[in-house]
Amino acid sequence: MGLQQSPNAKYTLLDPNKINYTITIKDSSGCVINDKQEVWVFDKSDVFVPTAFSPNADGANDVLLPFYINIAKLNYFRIYDRWGKLIFETNDLKESWNGLVNGKQAPLETYAWTIACVDADGKLLLRKGMVTMIRD
């Protein structure tokens, strides 16, 4: 039973860094399914960190994990509370913050983060920003 007898994909370029594909799939019984997929295209190394996350155990955005693009080594990913106290630190590209501080849920507020990493070409990248913790 073949589900993808005649897949077609067309794209629309709305933003230089994003390609939106419209996907049409016709199954063996003639049913047509339409879907859309956004693909991000990166032309250089960078780090992106969400502006909010919700560690409420609902399976969506429960941890804060930066998106590392063409990064070879993470020197540090640090999170600070509103008083500047370091509450989380890692040098593991796969490690995320789950919203806990010393095993307890951190307060719902905005936190500062800093990242120092090295890209695949050996260039040091420094990034900083803010993230808001929400529980809805």
What labels describe this entry?
136 residues; mainly beta; Immunoglobulin-like; 2 domains; 5-stranded mixed β-sheet; 0% helix; disordered N terminus
Give the structural class.
mainly beta
Helix and strand sequence? EEEEEEEEEEEE
CATH class categorisation of the largest domain: Mainly Beta
- Can you name the CATH architecture of the largest domain? Sandwich
Tell me the strand percentage band. over 45%
Radius of gyration: 20 Å
**Average pLDDT number:** 86
Note the main sheet: 5 strands, mixed
* Number of structural units classed as domains: 2
Instruction: Please tell me what the overall shape is.
Output: flat
SS elements, strand count = 12
> What strand line-up does the widest sheet have?
5-12-11-7-8
End-to-end Cα distance = 42 Å
Helix content: under 10%
**CATH-defined fold name of the largest domain:** Immunoglobulin-like
Low-confidence stretches: 1-5
Number of helices: 0
